[in-house]
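Here's a chain:
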Amino acid sequence: MQEKGEPKEITLRESTGIITSNKLDCFTLHNGIVYNPWERFYGGVIVRGNIIEQVFKGDPPPAKTGERQLLIDCCENRIMPGFVDIHVHGASGFDFTIASDLESEKAIYHHGISGGTTALVPTMVSAPIEHLKQSARNLSAVRKRQAPGTPEILGLHLEGPFLNPWYKGAHSVKYLKNPEAGLIEDLVDSLGDNLKILTLSPELPHALEAISYLKNKTVTVALGHSGASVEEVEQAVACGLQHVVHTFSAMRRFHHRSPGVLGAALTDDRLSAEIIADGVHTHPTAVNLFFRSKPRGKTVLVTDALAVCGLPDGECLLDDKKIIYRQGKAFLENGNLAGSVITMNRALEGAVEMSGLNLEAVLPSATINPARVIGAGKCKGSLEKGKDADLVVLDDYYNVLATFCRGIPLTYRAI
């Protein structure tokens, strides 16, 4: 039996059962390479309760007198902040737009265990308004009962139904609408503070009024599925537009005399912007261009993962549309590309490889930058004293060895 004040040292693969079955004062991850936004060093992290107490360089400091402490040897693997995914549709066969609360929980666990996601914004596609309200109630029920040790729902993302039908992508055109005041106000009233992001096409009728209203309600307004001109995007930014979803995908193509929404997304430093770095939605040169164009604090990695994420080749649903999954790609029945099948660790790997940047330069795109998009940067996204103890440990091949959600381990793998 461990005596008070006597540190016990174990390897990472032994940590889950010990932490969850013992009431420890704190534990320390050490002998790791710590990656924080824009920096890296040899050291570790001390966790007390659900909070980060200290991030240290070198060997761990001595334990406090009379304290039960656990030392977890990370064997020189990578310790970094848990990933924050603000655009994700599901996993494990379950789509957040149509899933029950229990099904949604299974999808959320997949992204934590396999991908290192410790916080997320479940994303719903265009559907009847009443259907979206019910889906939001299901996810709200999950959010209310969440405890440390599970990837935390930070709110909900409505991707539609206020989208340009010419750029609908995988959305059903029959559900698309103009963002009229009554519809927007009804959704905001129904979803309350669960609504964190609403994606719309700013060129639609009533869109500018909707953007102003949503900004005043502290909802992050995102541009997506859009054929807007540069001038229309500038008007929208002036009204409160803040963010761009899946840059390059489902948007007006760039032309040197009419740069359009893509030109605005890449050159307007007021806008944060997402990219799906899976090598399917975006060519490596496009990923490189994205990271060269945007300020380092405005790049956001997302999965845009569908229900087929984590499944073998087969079929699944995105709301009422059949998705066909073959060899790492997800398609609609008409052959058009749908969302992705990656997890956040693979998004990070792809972004590093395709951008030509080092890991510490890309890491903010998966951690602090998305957290700031939804106003969660004070508690999520970096390893700092006082922040939530959301951590992930990766090996050199970006495999997830352990995920800690608010100080409680979600999973581990042998190292």
